[in-house]
Amino acid sequence: MTTRAGFIALIGEPNAGKSTLTNRMVGAKVSIVTHKVQTTRARIRGVALEGDSQLIFVDTPGLFQPKRRLDRAMVAAAWGGAADADVIVLLIEAHRGVTEGVKRILDGLAELPQGRKIALAINKIDRVEVPTLLDLTKDLNDRFAFAKTFMISAEKGRGVDDLRHWLADELPEGPWLYPEDQIADLPMRMIAAEMTREKLTLRLHQELPYQLTVETENWEERPDGSARIDQVIYVARDGHKGIILGRKGETIKAISKASREELSEFLGRKVHLFLQVKVRSNWLEEAERYSEMGLDFTDGNA
C-alpha cells in the first residue's frame, strides 16, 4: 500500500470560507468560524484522511491590506503557510468575483517558488447564476495557470468531495505525519481559547473583537474525568472590560456558558470553565501574546 501525506494551504481574502472548508474537510470544528472577517489568526492545521492519504490543512488568516502590527503578523503567517505547503488552494467568493484583494493575491502567488500545485476553488456558488460562474472561472484561469478549478459550497458541502479526492492524489508519497485519530496539531489549550474567542466575536460588535485575545491559563484534569479550564480575556481598555462583563455580568455569563457547552461536546466530557477579563493596554505590542496566538511577533514589524 502506498501512503501519501502533505500540507495543503487554504488562502484567500477574509471571510472567503477557509475555516468553513477546513472544518468540512476534517469533519470536526478545529477552526473558528464567524460572520466577521479576519477571525483566524494562527495557521490552524486540521488533519483529514482520504483513502491512503493524510491531508493536513493549513487554515491561514485572510489576506488583506495590513495596517497594524497584528495585521502584518497575520498576513505574514498566511503567506508563510502557502510557501511551506505541498498544495495551495485559492478560495474565491463567487458573488464577489475578482476584487482588488484577489488581484493582489494572484500577484503574490506568481512570486512563489515554482513546483507546487495551485488549485482554484470558487466558493459560495449558490449565490450566483451559472453564466456568471462560468465567466468568473474563465477570467481567473486567464489571469493564472491553475492546476485545477473546483466549484464548491463549503457551507453545504457541494463539490467538497471532488476537491478532497483530487488533493489526496496530488500529495507526495510518504508515511503519515500524524496519528490516525488526530484531527489537529494545535494544543488543546489553544483550541479551547479559540472557541471562547469565537463566542466573544459572535456576541460582541464593531472593533472590540479585534482588540482582544484569549489565553488558556490553567488546565486541570479532575479525578471524576472532568476538566477545569481557566482562561484570561485580555482587552486594551477599561471600557472594553465593561462591555465584555455586561450588565450584572450577563454578557460574560452567556459567553462562558456557550463556550463551556461547545468545549464539553468537543472533548466528550464535562468542562468547568472560568473566565477572567484583564486590561492590558499594550497587549498588541507584547511578544508573549503573539506566541500564544501562534504568530511571529517580528513579522509584525513595518
TrEMBL record:
It is found in: Cytoplasm; Cell membrane. Residues 152-154 are annotated as: G5. GTP binds at residues 12-19, 59-63, 123-126. The keyword Nucleus does not apply. Residues 12-19 are annotated as: G1. GO terms for molecular function: GTP binding; GTPase activity; ribosomal small subunit binding; small ribosomal subunit rRNA binding. The keyword ATP-binding does not apply. Residues 4-173 form the Era-type G domain. Keywords: Cell membrane, Cytoplasm, GTP-binding, Membrane, Nucleotide-binding, Ribosome biogenesis, RNA-binding, rRNA-binding. It is a peripheral membrane protein. Residues 204-281 form the KH type-2 domain. One of its GO terms (biological process) is ribosomal small subunit assembly. Residues 59-62 are annotated as: G3. It comes from the Bacteria. Residues 123-126 are annotated as: G4. Monomer. NCBIfam families: era (TIGR00436), PRK00089.1 (NF000908), small_GTP (TIGR00231). Belongs to the TRAFAC class TrmE-Era-EngA-EngB-Septin-like GTPase superfamily. Era GTPase family. An essential GTPase that binds both GDP and GTP, with rapid nucleotide exchange. Plays a role in 16S rRNA processing and 30S ribosomal subunit biogenesis and possibly also in cell cycle regulation and energy metabolism. This is GTPase Era. It comes from Tropicibacter naphthalenivorans. The gene is era.
